[in-house]
Design a protein that fits this description.
This protein is mainly beta and about 190 residues long. It has one domain (about 20-185): Lipid/polyisoprenoid-binding, YceI-like (Lipocalin, Beta Barrel). Helices cover about 5% and strands about 50% of the residues. Strands 1, 2, 3, 4, 5, 6, 7, 8, 9, 10, 11 and 12 form a 12-stranded antiparallel sheet that branches. The protein starts with about 20 loop residues before the first strand and ends with a strand.
Length: about 190
């Protein structure tokens, strides 16, 4: 099957409707990317939370299938425990050439290719994520019903050609693994 992909995004959202394709309610839905720290002095670093608003998407519960798109330039660092100055620096680094390179790669897209039913209202969705100009398979864990779905996916930055940011000669760095969580509502 042909596979396409999505995002923070990371970082990937899924939902299903009843019968035909339905639109994702972008205003009501949320997607968050969790960025974790590592390194010898990681206690001095920060973990980051990034809001990745869904620009558009659709889902179908019968199939089940989902497609969604995130505009990388609209992703926002929403850390509460860092100063405004530090948040701005992290935001600039995230959108800049070191990480997302949002001017060169403005779209993050996920498109499902198949789904495994894991139980009542639970699925493992297989699809492709296009991020940073590269497309790779991603598995998304989904739970919900009646047009409201929650779940998560985990990805590795290096799989998409991104090098995790480090500071202090590598003593504080961002982990390669990211977790994308979502809460999707249909219209």
């Amino acid at each position: 099957m042909r596979k396409s992909l999505i995002f923070f995004a990371a970082f990937t959202a899924l939902a299903f409707a009843t019968s035909a394709d339905k639109s994702i309610d972008a205003a009501k839905s949320t997607m968050t990317v969790h960025v974790y720290k590592s390194g010898a002095f990681s206690a001095f670093g920060h973990e980051h939370e990034v809001s990745a608003p869904i620009a558009e998407g659709s889902f179908n519960e019968e199939t089940p299938a989902v497609t969604l798109r995130v505009e990388s330039a609209k992703m926002r660092v929403v850390d509460k425990e860092i100063s405004d100055t530090d948040r701005t620096k992290v935001q600039e680094t995230m959108l800049g050439p070191q990480v997302l390179d949002s001017s060169k790669f403005p779209q993050i897209v996920f498109k499902s290719s198949s789904a495994d039913r894991l139980g009542d209202g639970k699925w493992l969705i297989h699809g492709d994520l296009m991020l940073h100009g590269q497309s790779h398979p991603v598995n998304v864990h989904v739970e919900g019903q009646s047009g409201h779905y929650q779940g998560f996916a985990e990805i590795k930055q290096k799989d998409f050609g991104m090098t995790p940011v480090s500071a202090g000669g590598g003593s504080v760095k961002v982990k390669n693994e990211l977790r994308i969580e979502f809460d999707i509502w249909g219209k």
